[in-house]
Batch of 2 targets.
Target 1
Amino acid sequence: MSLPRPSGRPRLEELEESARRILVALGEDPDREGLEATPRRVARSLLDLTDGYGTDINVLARGALYAHEGTEPVTMRDIPFYSLCEHHLLPMFGRCHIGYVPSGRVLGLSKLPRIVDAFAHRLQMQERMTSQIAEAIEQLVEARGVAVVVEARHLCVEMRGVEKAESQTVTSCMLGAYKSDGQLRAEFMELAGRR
Ligand code: ZN
């Protein structure tokens, strides 16, 4: 499952030129001292913040899938993430809680935050990111069930004063056993601190 950028390779120079044009359009002087290096910095940081497009989830998990007989749920909570909303290119960030019920194998724990990053580091919608993370884990681990809850703050909402500051948006995706088994789901929600 490769995650290519929707339309090919990004171009640093083009991003830089575009950032310069934004400065001009804002009425700024892009050649003044404080802004001289800004277009290049903006271009580089945008590339860094969207490097998840280049991540292949199967490569990421290679060598980290282990045979495991147990069927007790695995839960990791409070995985921090930073993303950009695709509507305003402003930060959305927060925490992700993941649970899955193994059926024959488990994924090395350090890979869960990396899977979150692979989907967070691109232009995103919180709802889509939540289900992408769940579906990736379901596919990799062939889990009997996967639960993902994402709590996020959206600076496009907070900075523009659309909502009260520090409001949180919570999204969830329940697959397999977490969807059909209310008790399993309730236990996950409790472990994730969401009761
Ligand atoms: Zn937004």
Target 2
Amino acid sequence: MKNFLNIHDVVNAEQLAQEAIAIKQQKFANKSIGKDKTMVLLFLNSSLRTRISTQKAAHNLGMQTIVLNLGQDSWQMEYEDGAVMNGTTAEHIKEGAAVISEYADIIGIRAFPTLTDREKDYSEYVLHKFLENVNVPVVNMESATVHPLQSLTDLMTIREYSKKEKPKVVLSWAPHIKPLPQCVANSFAEWMNHADVEFVITHPKGYELNEKFSGNAHIEYMQDKAFENADFIYAKNWSAYDSYGKILGDNPDWMITDKKMQLTNHANFMHCLPTRRNLEIADDVLDSAYSLVIKQAANREYAAQAVLKKILENL
Ligand code: AN0
Ligand code: CP
């Protein structure tokens, strides 16, 4: 594997998920493969899980890590070609990224969408600016449109806990007070469309995802109906794609509750975290025995390790 930008860098999603499950059983089996190598992790946005689990994965493979909150710990970066830099930006991506790539064997980047400029976001403007100016592999730690390290983890977790070969997996929109990226939902949908599952998406009208990501998923606007016979409920809020970056209403009745989970086939509950309790997900779901959210977050380490191992093998 050269880069890990999205699912198109993966030959077989199901197989990579199985490799992550195998790594979990012996996570130090390849601890010299990354010896004398350094991964630089660049965060343009907040992170708890990605920041720690990706570093742990790198350490398990013998790599060193350096973490930078770009624009906070370093200089404000300019991305526009030809910019006259007499404003707030102090360093151009052309030098900034090139210099980082001198110090790094692998670069991880988190760069959320603007949620105001759809065309720019869906062109993956910032991610591509980095790619143009570095000469080492790049790992997407959540970009403007996708979060593939999360989605690989999600597929891995579904395979670990599924009692069936072809489970019914439901991605449900849930309420939030802030406009959030479509990334996790886009990416989850894309990976589920590559997996051997029955996949349903449920959301209020107006929250349709870009069809490039939702693909052939069955869309069900009645949440209760979508939950029937589900084996996994995967909840996430996202802002609208059509009315780009907008929240279309409060929709408090879309919060995931234990009562709704009772409509399913004893489904497990999943969420990428962070989540806002009793706004997006009720306490009785997050505190239940069927919630996988902590185990799912723990799996981030092994999914990242499966990806970094593939990249190191190709260096
Ligand atoms: C981010 C999002 O929705 O993309 C990160 C999730 C992993 N979440 C928030 O901003 C709350
Ligand atoms: N799920 C996830 O990516 O969490 P963080 O934003 O805390 O990294």
